[in-house]
From TrEMBL:
<keyword id="KW-0326">Glycosidase</keyword>
<dbReference type="Pfam" id="PF00128">
    <property type="entry name" value="Alpha-amylase"/>
</dbReference>
<dbReference type="GO" id="GO:0005975">
    <property type="term" value="P:carbohydrate metabolic process"/>
</dbReference>
<feature type="domain" description="Glycosyl hydrolase family 13 catalytic">
    <location>
        <begin position="135"/>
        <end position="493"/>
    </location>
</feature>
<dbReference type="InterPro" id="IPR006047">
    <property type="entry name" value="GH13_cat_dom"/>
</dbReference>
<comment type="similarity">
    <text>Belongs to the glycosyl hydrolase 13 family.</text>
</comment>
<dbReference type="Pfam" id="PF16657">
    <property type="entry name" value="Malt_amylase_C"/>
</dbReference>
<dbReference type="GO" id="GO:0004553">
    <property type="term" value="F:hydrolase activity, hydrolyzing O-glycosyl compounds"/>
</dbReference>
<dbReference type="InterPro" id="IPR004185">
    <property type="entry name" value="Glyco_hydro_13_lg-like_dom"/>
</dbReference>
<dbReference type="Pfam" id="PF02903">
    <property type="entry name" value="Alpha-amylase_N"/>
</dbReference>
<dbReference type="InterPro" id="IPR017853">
    <property type="entry name" value="GH"/>
</dbReference>
<dbReference type="InterPro" id="IPR013780">
    <property type="entry name" value="Glyco_hydro_b"/>
</dbReference>
<dbReference type="InterPro" id="IPR032091">
    <property type="entry name" value="Malt_amylase-like_C"/>
</dbReference>
<keyword id="KW-0378">Hydrolase</keyword>
<dbReference type="InterPro" id="IPR013783">
    <property type="entry name" value="Ig-like_fold"/>
</dbReference>
<dbReference type="InterPro" id="IPR045857">
    <property type="entry name" value="O16G_dom_2"/>
</dbReference>
<protein>
    <submittedName>
        <fullName>Alpha-glycosidase</fullName>
    </submittedName>
</protein>
């Protein structure tokens, strides 16, 4: 047994309270090196009467390690624990101080989870687990009020550029809420709606004012109210890492230099403000001079931005914030942000934009979730790019799930494209079958899925700005078959609770193979998801499945296995979502 590969640490994603009576434990071992793992756990003040060996299950595996999990129900909300690792040839007890072959005589040197304090439990909004989000880029969704059009607005449907306008606005969204309801979405994520000079609005001029080209606060409140009547939650974009060049405090600094009372609102290295060799003399987003970085450690800046966060929740009733460039803002600001937002609405969803592993932000004191780009990459690498086989895909997403507490994974924001990436149909080179396969994984995977506007009707587009095309509203030009697919996909997700909150287990994911099968389980409810990522017909063979009837929740087709084991024949890029039949 390679003990050097064994890893565990208290707290973080390895030992955490899931609720007020449950602690989740995880441990890592070398791949295929350990046959059994037990958590040896009990109350430190009543060890003899409470100690038990809890079997751990191998939840996921990757190319190097196995990841084991279990849950403990401590009778007094505290836990002393160690691990027993067994293989055919040996057994080791793991304590906080190391490994030994004899069972420790006392629990003194075991790991310690001191107490489940309710205030410390990571709590994410329950409604997000059931949500299906739809991302809207307001300037390109629909022009509902031409009187708001900016100067030089172009006819709807033209070629998007970084600096052109087509007149999309909030009234346009209101006018097309029926489309969203028909599709079945229950949440909208809007890119920024506050006053700014660009079409994307990530250069905020006034955080307390809706952009006049989009409408006003009354229009936004009307939109939110109408969404709520339809059971649709609303998420706005908070750009707190940086402001725009026309933000009043930055204008003051530009005009008054070192004499400006706002000079400490920003990170200025040198006066006067200038751009030298393409780099501003002040910190900015990606060296972009029109997006100066805000000093969120400054008490005045913090007070201002936290008031913004609170205002739109209380006055307009939004249901949460998506946080732009969240990893470049200090952690203490986000801790205070969470306190402010949750005080205004305890059920508000706090979503950070991070493109990488995000453990430090997902401990329950900052974000509820992050935009799950590692998941995005894994799906695209498997289904679209073909750089991962089924086994490598299962390893990639399994490893990702072990990085965070379960609460964070249950509300992860799972996307396949956005305003920052090429559109899914374009990534799939126009192959709708691949597009559907990728979306099937997205909608049957833990977390909340998000559709980028227009994907459901066949909108394509390359890298920004091409991915920000005008929405197609001419039904004769929409791909209605694709719309029906997404509507059915959302319907299936909504009808099967296991797809939203059930556990995940891979049933078939082999090296060099294009077929994948996994199970979502919630109590006694089971859903089997099978897919064929190949241009040829494939038969998926699942061993150890009890004889019985299975129904495809997507197509309605019946599959029957008379003996133990299940064979499902899938067409090219085909799939099945199987539930036990009657």
């Amino acid at each position: 047994m390679l003990l050097e590969a064994v890893y565990h640490r208290p707290k973080m994603n390895w030992a955490y309270a899931y609720d007020e009576s449950t602690i989740h434990l995880r441990i890592r071992t070398k791949k295929d090196d350990v046959d059994q793992v037990f958590a040896w756990a009990g109350d430190k003040y009543a060890w003899e009467n409470t100690q038990e060996l809890i079997p751990m299950s191998k939840a996921f595996t990757d190319s190097m390690f196995d990841y084991w999990e279990c849950e403990a129900k401590p009778p007094y909300r505290r836990l002393k624990y160690g691990f027993l690792l067994k293989s055919e040839a040996e057994a080791w007890w793991m304590t906080e101080t190391g490994f030994q072959q004899e069972r420790p005589k006392t629990p003194d040197r075991l790991f310690d989870f001191p107490f489940i304090n309710p205030v410390d439990i990571f709590k994410a909004p329950e409604w997000v687990k059931d949500a299906v989000f739809y991302q809207i880029f307001p300037e390109r969704f629909a022009n509902g009020d031409p009187s708001l059009n900016p100067e030089g607005v172009l006819p709807w449907g033209g070629q998007p550029q970084r600096d052109n306008f087509f007149g999309g606005d909030l009234q346009g969204v209101i006018d097309h809420l029926d489309h969203l309801s028909e599709l079945g979405v229950t949440g909208i994520y809007f890119t920024p709606v506050f006053e700014a000079t660009t079409n994307h609005k990530y250069d905020t001029q006034d955080y307390m004012k809706v952009d006049p080209h989009f409408g006003d606060a009354e229009t936004l409140k009307k939109l939110v109210d109408l969404c709520h009547e339809r059971g649709i939650r609303v998420l706005l974009d908070a750009v707190f890492n940086h402001s725009g060049r026309t933000f009043a405090p930055f204008v003051d600094v530009r005009e008054h230099g070192e004499q400006s009372k706002y000079k400490d609102w920003f990170h200025i290295r040198e006066f006067p403000l200038a751009v030298k060799d393409g780099i501003p003399t002040y910190d900015a987003f990606a060296f972009e001079p029109m997006m100066p970085k805000l000093n969120t450690e400054n008490p005045e800046v913090k007070e201002y931005l936290l008031k913004v966060a609170e205002y739109w929740i209380k006055e307009v009733g939004i249901d949460g914030w998506r946080l732009d460039v969240a990893n470049e803002v200090d952690h203490q600001f986000w801790r205070d942000f969470r306190q402010t937002v949750k005080a205004a609405n305890p059920e508000a969803y706090i979503l950070g934009e991070l493109w990488h592993e995000a453990s430090p932000w997902l401990q329950g004191d900052q974000f509820d979730a992050v935009m799950n780009y590692p998941f995005t990459d894994a799906v695209l690498d498997f289904v679209v790019r073909g750089t991962l086989d089924a086994k490598q895909f299962a390893e990639a997403v399994g490893r990702q799930l072990t990085l965070y507490p379960l609460q964070a994974s249950e509300v992860a924001f799972n996307l396949l494209d956005s305003h920052d990436t090429p559109r899914l149909l374009t990534l799939c080179e126009g192959n709708k079958n691949r597009m559907k396969l990728a979306s099937l994984i997205q909608f049957t995977y833990p977390g909340t899925p998000c559709l980028y506007y227009g994907d459901e009707v066949g909108l394509d587009g390359g890298q920004d700005p091409d991915c920000r095309k005008c929405m197609e509203w001419d039904t004769s030009k929409q791909d209605r078959e694709l719309f029906s697919f997404y509507r059915k996909l959302i319907e299936v997700r909504k009808s099967l609770p296991a797809l939203r909150t059930g556990s995940l287990r891979f049933l078939k994911a082999e090296a060099g193979e294009p077929v994948l099968a996994f199970e979502r389980r919630l109590g006694t409810d089971r859903v089997l998801i099978l897919l064929n990522n190949d241009a040829a017909i494939q038969t998926v063979r699942l061993e150890n499945q009890p004889a019985g009837v299975w129904k495809d929740a997507f197509s309605g087709r019946i599959w029957e296995n008379r003996q133990e084991g299940l064979d499902v024949r899938l067409p090219a890029y085909g799939f099945a979502v199987l539930v036990p039949g009657e």
